[in-house]
Write a structure and sequence with these properties.
Elements (H helix, E strand, L loop, with lengths): L3 E2 L11 E4 L27 E8 L4 E8 L5 H19 L8 E11 L3 E10 L8 E8 L4 E4 L7 H19 L8 H12 L3 E2 L32 H10 L8 E3 L5 E5 L10 E8 L1 H4 L5 H13 L26 E7 L6 H10 L5 E4 L1 H6 L1 H9 L3 E4 L12 H19 L15 H6 L4 E2 L3 E2 L2 H4 L2 H11 L5 E5 L3 H16 L3 E2 L2 H4 L10 E2 L6
Parallel strand pairs: 4-5, 13-14, 13-18, 13-19, 14-15, 16-20, 17-18
Antiparallel strand pairs: 1-9, 2-12, 3-4, 5-6, 6-7, 7-8, 10-11, 11-12
Helix pairs in contact: 2-3, 7-14, 9-10, 13-14
InterPro entries: Glyco_hydro/deAcase_b/a-brl, NODB_dom, Polysacc_deacetylase_ArnD
EC number: 3.-.-.-
Organism: Nocardiopsis alba
Length: 524
């Protein structure tokens, strides 16, 4: 059985910083003050924030996050985490009230080496009206997204940081041991009881359960012996320690840690919105991991656009990638345009932050290049549907290649980007077509039959009843009845927690092969 020593050899003397609600007076001038490093992406001069709000009759969901690039791992991780939380929220709405979910992110550090973000969540359906917050750190050297626990070299160091925080609360705020909140009090009490010797949870019999934010139950700490340099083990440790105030830590301008806490737990904070408790740099020197040192350097000395690691981004076209192996995704696809109703459809899709895929005819793109350009500028995928809707199986291999090249050139000229996927008219393809194509063939698993019925209600019913996670849904935006159906389809599928993505986004990286046909990405 392994034993971890947590004897404290130093006295921690730090400052307390307070963030006050609007209209409050400044904190007592006798109160020490420190400042956490946090800033908006726009402050860097090369990054933007994407902000989305979707209001429906039943709820309001909104989120914002820094646009770090279409394929940046941190963008995908943050966006997917928000999508999963939004789905859970929408699937479990209460019967009454005006439920609202607000998710925001802010930057804590940015350099070529490390990017740190703080994610905050306010859920009106939860008992607490305080946002839940935690931090994530992208390590450019390993290209891994790491939780806050990875800033410490092991769980012994993590527990030591809790003891340092306990010392601050006792010494600067005269808090008695029994007043120390949550895990801070538990770690401190265990250290006192055992004269600084604590047994990791992994070596103990009782199970731990920090789920409710009250420590681990049965007097057991979440202390384990995880390798915090390993993303999976660090994430598991973050779950065990999820009730810790250190989950919402940043670096202070002085190079120490700045820990946000509920002011209701801290005597003397008055009407502060949150208590910001910094720990001096020298008190964390032996606790930080190698990543922790680099993250601190990025926060204190970096704060510039990480040009080598973050893609240059503009407008709505980047930073919206979801991991559809984790999120509840569906791809809405529209054939035969662009047409007279396409721009109305683009406006409707924007109301739900919905990405779609448009399989366009090259002849119409040549006739209406401005519509194709706007479609791509709004972040939608523009794919090939041949030049003028010929059945490709009636052509030779050279004929197929000529048709596809002509269509691709028209799309690239209008949008600035060559199509990466294609859909054959009527879904018709054979070995000659497959061999001649330079793109994956995207078919569908949900055919709304909109081209046949031209009935808005029938289109709505068919789409909503047949869709599942990973579906590819076929529509035609050349029909007014279809475009009229989309608002209700988006509304209903949104309420079920679906996220609307492009075909490229729906399928995982490397999953699509040239000449191969795909109907869906359902997870079975």
């Amino acid at each position: 059985m392994s034993v971890i020593s947590l004897r404290r050899n130093v006295t921690v003397g730090v400052a307390l910083g307070m963030l006050l609600v609007p209209g409050c007076h400044a904190a007592d001038t006798s109160m020490p003050y420190a400042e956490a490093i946090q800033f908006a992406p726009e402050d860097l001069g090369g990054l933007n924030t994407r902000t989305v709000s979707v209001e429906s009759e039943d709820s309001t969901v909104s989120y914002s996050y820094p646009i770090l690039g279409e394929s940046h791992p941190l963008s995908a991780y943050v966006r997917t985490a928000m999508a999963e939380r939004q789905t859970a929220f929408l699937e479990n709405l209460p019967d009454r009230g005006d439920p609202e979910l607000v998710q925001t992110t802010s930057l804590l550090a940015a350099s070529d080496d490390v990017v740190g973000v703080r994610m905050s969540v306010t859920d009106s359906t939860k008992a607490s009206d305080r946002p839940g917050s935690s931090t994530l750190w992208y390590d450019a050297r390993t290209e891994q997204v790491m939780p806050w626990t990875s800033l410490f070299h092991d769980e012994q160091a993590l527990a030591q940081a809790h003891l340092a925080l306990a010392d601050v609360l006792r010494e600067d705020y005269d808090m008695a041991p029994e007043q120390l909140p949550g895990l801070v009090g538990e770690v401190s009490a265990k250290a006192e009881e055992s004269d600084g010797e604590l047994v990791p949870a992994a070596a103990s019999d009782p199970a731990t359960d920090p789920e409710e934010g009250e420590g681990t139950g049965e007097g057991e700490l979440p202390l384990g012996d995880a390798d915090l340099t390993d993303p999976e083990q660090a994430m598991e440790a973050a779950e065990r320690w999820s009730a810790s105030p250190l989950a919402d830590l940043a670096f202070s301008t002085a190079g120490g840690l700045a820990v946000r806490m509920d002011p209701a737990q801290i005597p003397g904070t008055g009407r502060a919105e949150e208590a910001l408790i910094p720990i001096e740099a020298e008190e964390t020197e032996e606790s930080l991991s190698e990543l922790g040192y680099r993250a601190r350097d990025a926060a204190v000395n970096g704060n510039s656009v990480p040009a080598e690691r973050v893609a240059e981004t503009t407008g709505d076209t980047e930073g919206r990638t979801l991991d559809c192996a984790e999120a509840k995704c569906v791809a809405l696809t529209f054939d035969d345009g662009p047409g007279e109703y396409t721009e109305e459809l683009l406006d409707t899709l924007a109301e739900y932050d919905a990405q779609a895929t448009f399989y366009v005819l090259g002849s119409l793109v040549e006739e209406f290049p401005e519509i194709a350009e706007r479609t791509a500028a709004k972040g939608h995928e523009v794919g090939s549907h041949t030049w003028k809707h010929d059945d490709l199986t009636s052509l030779s291999g050279d004929g197929v290649r000529e048709d596809m090249e002509r269509t691709s050139e028209a799309i690239e000229k209008a949008t600035g980007k060559a199509p990466r996927t294609m859909r054959p008219p009527y879904g018709s393809h054979n070995s000659t077509v497959s061999d001649a194509l330079g793109q994956p063939i995207i078919l569908w698993d949900v055919d709304t039959m909109d081209w046949q019925s031209r009935d808005t209600d029938a289109i709505i019913d068919h789409a909503v009843s047949e869709v599942d996670t990973g579906s590819v849904v076929l529509f035609h935006d050349i029909h007014k009845s279809t475009v009229d159906a989309i608002p209700d389809i988006l509304k209903e599928l949104h309420s079920q927690g679906y996220h609307f993505v492009s075909v490229e986004n729906l399928f995982a990286d490397g999953q699509l092969s040239e000449g191969e046909a795909y109907t869906d990405a359902r997870l079975e």
